[in-house]
Model the fold of this input.
Amino acid sequence: MAFDLREYTIRRKVLKIFGASFHVYDASGQVVAFSSQKAFKLREDIRVFTDDTRSTELMNVRARQIVDFSAAYDMVDSTENTKIGAARRKGWSSMIRDSWEVLDANDQPIASLQEDSTAMALLRRFLVNLIPQTFHMRDPDGRELAVMRVHFNPFIYRMTVSVSDTSVDPRVVFGAAVLLAAIEGRQQ
Amino acid sequence: MSEPAYCDCGKMFETTRAQAGGIVNCPGCGQAVDIPGLTDPAWRAMQFGALVAVFAVTALVTGYSDVPTGAACGLAVGVLMWLMSRAL
Done:
């Protein structure tokens, strides 16, 4: 199961005209999931499937509002039809350094997701956008839960997720990673 | 401020304004329930902007002489966008 992996890579599918699609690979290079962002939807709607036949849906990540400065995205486990968590973008902070709040199913903060450093974030924004981003997911005590590292490649977006602590639902980490790839990956 | 939400299992429960447009697990059966969205201020602003734009362009094209046509077009687009916002 894709959610149980400690390390996986999300790779954007090239030559996709409308919307965005991502393949998720395990450490051995096998496809473990396929994610697709619906095109022409006013509200962001990202679906995760077991593979690109889209026969079995695993997860749905959906924005609450059409346009929102501090957008919140709910994550639903499609197999159980239950909300597993949410991620909320910190609007003001993200102008300088991408920052997200990871929430549980009751919208209580369980972790933060932040770009590596303010200096690097400023460098990326104002000088060169080619420096790949790294995101750290930490619990409220500052303990690192996962690292999401974007690879240097100006043509294909690729992000490796390394989960170091499973105290947070791994499905939420997976959902946050797919969301980052879809939302922040657009800036490339 | 709280808004009522209804689950298919028959349970009615309160939701917060921040949850509007999102998904909440029903406290009765635990299944995900879609919460109706509040009027999105950004969507309203887009509607108003489109209305003004159509009005302005039509007025310009008609050389400021046919303001009722511009108003009619603006009104038509406004109604269309309102209908679309209801359907979303």
About this structure: The first helix of chain B runs from residue 41 to 61. Residues 2 and 85 of chain B are 22 Å apart (CA to CA). The radius of gyration of chain B is 20 Å.
